[in-house]
Amino acid sequence: MPCLVCLNVVTDDELVAEDDFFVSVSEHDHRKFLPATSADVFRKADRLAEAVRDWEQGRGRKNVWERLSKASGLSYHPDGLLYDAELRVFLDPCEQIMFDGMHVLFSNGVCQLETGLALQRLVNTPDWDFNDFREFVKADFRCPIGQGHWGTRAKAVASQREDALRCKGAFPCTASEMMLILPVFLHYLQVVVSKKWEVGDILASYEALSDVCRLFKDCKQGRRGGSQALRQASAKHLRLFNTAYGKDNAIPKHHYEQHLGDGRFQRALDCFAGERKNHELKSCAEFHKSGIAFDRQVLLRAITSQLGDLNNDLLYGDQLYSGKTDPLNSALQFSKHGRLLGARVSVEDALRVDNQILVVKCLVEAAGTAVWGFTVFSSLVICMFIGPTSRDIRSCLHVLSAE
Ligand SMILES: [Zn+2]
User: Fold this and answer.
1) Which structural domain, as residue segments, surrounds residue 236?
2) What is the pTM of this model?
3) How many CB atoms within 10 Å of residue 382?
């Protein structure tokens, strides 16, 4: 049972065929999932703990608790939260668990699996050449600098990746590469492949996957009604995936995808920010010797350092990178690059603001005063594209070209 919050979802298709209580991870109909309670989870944990104790005291075999651990999807840690009787009054795992969109979708997730399956289908298509796809990916597609670099996208289709596809039938790439490749591959399927080959099922499933990724991002930002739309989109995606590639290719992460729109805590969360802190944790660990209080000491040091950083405007606040003073108005500083609301922004990035797309023409710091014709965000000002006749835009571009 791969899912903590469902009672009846299993990976064993024979079990599904024998007993209609069970449903497979390839099931897209949410009405068939029976919700588990936290009492069910504690019961499973207690059975596992008992089997381990039996084995430790010579009364049972190791493979009994190993099979139980695999079947219940739990591992046994005597100091873990699930096994601490006193903490159970504060613990409600079925309500408190969140499904992590980063690992479900982008980090060895359903996006890699489906991109690999689609490319595998293309590799076996007469007259299709991986080099065509590689050249397409390397074309001059632009994306906000905060989302990644051109080089990262090109690396995702390097020759080693083609070899992995041909030998193992997989498309292994990092989460950052996947986020850059997904819209380009979708565009490639839409404007190139579907014009020449019969790939309607592949395209429909990939479009649905792309919708899931977009709606998940909306849910991260707390958009109203986003959860319901995401639930519907993930069900539609799994149905179309099954049609294109067969139910046998569905994995537990397809089921977790169905939970991304559960709407717990009113928004979706993922591990991207946490994963970026791995280096921070490693550097904190260097100060402590391993021992009984190791975890607590490292965590305390990391939290103290993080709280200190959050107070430091130079690390997280809005700012220009390499700003230059406007020769016509010394109160204005201009730059092509800066940090805005925590993200790196550069000239030519497109930003969606209140359903409008704004193209960044330069970044201006105006010493606290708004500049006519520009949109103000926090302490920085984005010069948006408001037409070639704008005197101010021309003035900004003049300054930038002089840099
Ligand atoms: Zn579930």
Assistant:
1) 101-258
2) 0.77
3) 21
